[in-house]
Amino acid sequence: MLEIHDLTHAEDGVTHLDHVSARLAPGTLTTILGRTGAGKTSLLRTIAGLLVPDSGEVSLDGQGWSRLPPWKRPTAMVTQQFINYPHLSTLDNVAFPLVRKGLRWPAARDSARAMLDRVGLSAMVGRRPSELSGGQQQRVAIARALVKQAPVLLLDEPFVNLDYKLREDLREELVDMLRNESGLIVLYASTEPREALSLGDRILLMAEGRLLDDGEPQQVFGAPATIEAARVISDPPINILPLTVGAHVAAGPFGAQDAGDLIRGLAPGEYRLGLRAADLRPGGRHVARVVLSEVSGSETVTHLDLAGFALVMHEKSVVTHPPGAEIAVDANLARGFIYGADGTLLRREAPHGQD
Amino acid sequence: MYRQKYLFLTPGLIALVAIILFPLLFTIRVSFSGWDVYNPGLSWKGGQNFSRLMADSRYWAALGRLSVMAVGTVLIQYVLGFALALLVWRDVIARRFFRVLFLVPMMTTPVIMSVIWRTIFHESLGPLNPIIRGLGLPGVPWLSDPVWAFVAVMLVEIWQWTPFMFLLLLAGLLSLPSEPYLAARIDGAGPVRTFFSVTFPGLAAISVGAIVIRLIEASKILDTVYVMTSGGPGESTETASYYIYIRGLRDFQIGYSAALSIIYLVIMIVALTIIAKLLVRFLVRPAP
């Protein structure tokens, strides 16, 4: 069990880790999801020993790591950059951590060769990293991390610098490889909600160094604990609308009476309604002006202006909405989340996963 | 247009021939002459100068001495330069101050500094021996003992040119990528192993360049020897270039000193080529 206990780290007045705690079981792949600057890399670097926390501790199976320098910690790490040893061949790059563990070069090279075969680089053993493509360089880095057979594997957005197709392929390959590694604790940092939701057994949601939420993907996505958490895990962005409950019931530009059980029993007052972009749909009685429409693959994300409210609508088809055009929209308010004035989740209608 | 390129190249080629090739060719021609104080001019003596130098044990001894001095000083300069560069590479207090301080010796005039060092090493008037005696040790015959004089010349050379190594190696260190250091720490390499597995290989190419440049320069050592010891005591600090200077400009045996220079040049080219190739083989591209 990897235990992260109350980690705090600040530098130059900026808080990178703000009392972060988590317990990670062997055999699980946990994704750390957050935007740039959320503290994901700081957390991974602290676990690896590359960053000394101001307070808090990391321990594995009860053994504290505070006094362990990075080179003595049983961790392996793959970073965004394709980090390898430029002067060593691909084979020696992968053999290096094994030699550091005490293996002799011939035995280390045999293991390295087998690992390079697993990552599809058996034909490149004699090449130096500079003679490989970006994807191949990252495969070498992954091979170097896996060959070490460390109980904790830290993956810091390992594919973010690769093109989309290669990223998808490598991610699948990596997941396949990790399935064969039993008892491994894997932490995978990502800025992409879809990646986090599809990869992990568990999600740690982070923003500004704080842990916003921690749980299984469906749970974290299906009921974001705070507005901030909802914003981080929603892609396209979630719509946050003011919700007034009283004599006049309204959610932003929408009358909220059709929100059904969602608002039933709410005390009169001001709330916030979180409404996913997929829960806005074309048609209905509200007329919105198109600000921007983006087609991504087979989907369309449209930014709208409805009576002064900025909304985002997600359609699972390729649709042309010219900027400035007026289109009718409607909202499925019953699928929304109700947050209190402090931004914490009060109520949701029914569990629903990622659409 | 294609043919006209030679026209445009001509001025450069003329300058190249005039500056580099002509003096070299002229030296070769002089080396076959008997030009001396009594017979100035390009008389033809065939290979007599060369057969004479083959039997000139003083010349070969000076070459041997030069090899020891050049290789010794350059290696020590390299180790010290590397150590100093590592010292001020990372965040240390007054890093900029130390960087400039370490470069001061290189910015001084060699002849002037040799005079200063000769004064420092002076056995009765210099400040060094009183300090040594103050530590309870006997005074050192710095410039009157053959071995100590050789050491003294080497010390001044090391003092003067270590900053050159420092400068090149520091530039190399500052240009090293940080990523392999991260990898090494994660892969289980401590500071010493990281130095040998990341820093040293990363600086291999620069190291070879710096060592070869310094060897070329060190093989021409003359001014320090001239000022500090004049090759003495006896011939104990006489280097090849100083011996050529004696024969050419003191004895005025221009033809013979030209022959000495040509053989010296050939030996240097061959030796430095071999050294450079060996350094590249063992440092830049280590065998897997």
Which key phrases capture this entry?
heterodimer, A: 355 residues, alpha+beta, Rossmann fold, OB fold (Dihydrolipoamide Acetyltransferase, E2P), 2 domains, 6-stranded mixed beta sheet, 6-stranded antiparallel beta sheet, 20 strands, 24% helix, elongated, B: 288 residues, mainly alpha, MetI-like fold, 74% helix, 0% strand, globular
Outline of this structure?
The complex is a heterodimer of chains A (355) and B (288). With 355 residues, chain A is an alpha+beta fold.
Broad shape of chain B: globular
**What is the number of independent domains of chain B?**
1
Percent strand of chain A: 25-35%
Helix content of chain B: over 70%
Tally the helices of chain A.
Answer: 8
CATH homology superfamily name of the largest domain in chain A: P-loop containing nucleotide triphosphate hydrolases
CATH class of the largest domain in chain A: Alpha Beta
Count the domains of chain A: 2
Instruction: Order the strands across the largest sheet of chain A as they lie in space.
Output: 6-7-8-3-9-10
- Uncertain residue ranges of chain B: none
Q: What is the N-to-C succession of helices and strands of chain B?
A: HHHHHHHHHHHHH
What's the order of the H and E elements of chain A? EEEHEEEHHHEHEHEEHHEEEEEEEEEE
Task: Explain how this protein is built.
The complex is a heterodimer of chains A (355) and B (288). By secondary structure, chain A is of the alpha+beta class. Chain A folds into 2 domains: 2-233, 3-Layer(aba) Sandwich (Rossmann fold); 239-348, OB fold (Dihydrolipoamide Acetyltransferase, E2P). Chain A has 8 helices and 20 strands. Chain A has helices at 40-48, 90-100, 105-118, 134-147, 164-179, 193-199, 217-222, 227-233, and strands spanning 2-11, 14-24, 29-33, 55-60, 63-64, 75-78, 152-156, 185-190, 202-207, 210-215, 239-245, 250-251, 254-255, 269-275, 280-296, 299-306, 309-315, 326-331, 337-339, 345-348. In chain A, the strands form 4 sheets. In chain A, strands 6-7-8-3-9-10 form a 6-stranded mixed beta sheet, with helices on both faces. Chain A has a 6-stranded antiparallel beta sheet with strand order 13-12-11-14-19-20, with no helix packed on it. Chain A has a 4-stranded antiparallel beta sheet with strand order 2-1-4-5, with helices on one face. In chain A, a hairpin with a 2-residue loop joins strand 9 (202-207) and strand 10. In chain A, helix 2 packs parallel to helix 4. Chain A is elongated, with a radius of gyration of 24 Å. Chain A starts with a strand and ends in a 7-residue tail after the last strand. The model of chain A has no long low-confidence stretch (mean pLDDT 89). Chain B is mostly helical. Chain B has a single domain, classed as MetI-like fold (Orthogonal Bundle), CATH 1.10.3720. Chain B is globular, with a radius of gyration of 23 Å.
